[in-house]
Structure formats: C-alpha cells, structure tokens
Amino acid sequence: MATSQKVLTVNIVTPDGLVYDHHATMLVACAVDGDLGIMANHEPIIAPLKIGEVRVKRTDNPDHEDAVAVNGGFLEVNDNVASIVADSAERARDIDLKRAETARERAEKKIKVAEAQHDIDEVQRAQVALNRAINRINVSKHRRF
C-alpha cells in the first residue's frame, strides 16, 4: 500500500462498546510477542495482545499522548485503521485509582490464600486479576507529554 497519508485511525472496542476513537500519528501496543509500534501506511497485521498499556500519539496535538489500559484482545491494522478488540479497556482519565488499588490488594490476598491451599487454578486467576489491577494503576499514573 503506497499512499502518502500520514494519519492512522485508532479505535478500541470492548463487549461494552467503543472506548476510544481518534486519529493518530503512532500507536504502541503490548502484543504477546513484544511491543508493536504502528504508524500510517503500516502493512496489514493481526496480533494478539496481552494485558498492557496502549499509547496513542494523537494528530490534533503533536505533544499529546493518550494512554489506555487494555486487558487482552487483538489488534488488527489494515488501510490506515488500527482496531483493537479487547476483553476490557479503560482510558487513563477514566480509571478510578482507589478502586484499582483495592483490586490489587484483593488479588494479592487471594494469591496468598490459594498458594497456602495449593490451588494452582485459583493462583492463576488471581494473578491475572493482579496483572489487570497493576496495569490500570500504571496507566492511571501515565503522564502526558
């Protein structure tokens, strides 16, 4: 695809609906195999995402970057549109930090109890909850450039 367009449309959708939709010069997402940087005119790609931060450098303000906590899903890039279909996602400005910290504490306690009971399945579930809470905490503290 050889075009001169320098704008990438980024949208993030969850089962609850559209979470994010903006034009960007660059997108960085946490794929299972490592971070991906996507700019306009990128070759088509589909990649599974892990729990992590998605950063979007917006076109309307070159010094502005949005952060979104994404909890798994898939990224598809095609024709200057980057679509993320996520299990759940939350913009940094919408994250309730106190709620995220409470979720982290709850998950840490569940891990300790499950380890004491040698319940491997419960340890894994609690670890996922802990990773999601930590991701939300980190993204909520993200400072814009």
Automatic annotation (TrEMBL):
Keyword Membrane included in the entry's annotation? yes
Annotated coiled-coil positions are: 97-133
Stored CDD domains: F1-ATPase_delta
Keywords on record: ATP synthesis, Cell membrane, CF(1), Coiled coil, Hydrogen ion transport, Ion transport, Membrane, Transport
| Pfam families registered for this protein in UniProt | ATP-synt_DE, ATP-synt_DE_N
Q: Where is the ATP synthase F1 complex delta/epsilon subunit N-terminal domain?
A: 8-89
By sequence similarity, the record places it as follows: Belongs to the ATPase epsilon chain family.
| InterPro entries attached to this UniProt entry | ATP_F1_dsu/esu_C_sf, ATP_synth_F1_dsu/esu, ATP_synth_F1_dsu/esu_N, ATP_synth_F1_esu_C, ATPsynth_dsu/esu_N
Q: Which Gene3D superfamilies match?
A: ATP synthase delta/epsilon subunit, C-terminal domain, F0F1 ATP synthase delta/epsilon subunit, N-terminal
Localization recorded for this chain is: Cell membrane
- Descriptive protein name: ATP synthase epsilon chain
Q: How does it assemble?
A: F-type ATPases have 2 components, CF(1) - the catalytic core - and CF(0) - the membrane proton channel. CF(1) has five subunits: alpha(3), beta(3), gamma(1), delta(1), epsilon(1). CF(0) has three main subunits: a, b and c.
Membrane topology, record value: Peripheral membrane protein
Could you tell me what this protein does?
A: Produces ATP from ADP in the presence of a proton gradient across the membrane.
List each copy of the ATP synthase epsilon subunit C-terminal domain by range: 94-141
* Species of origin: Lapidilactobacillus achengensis
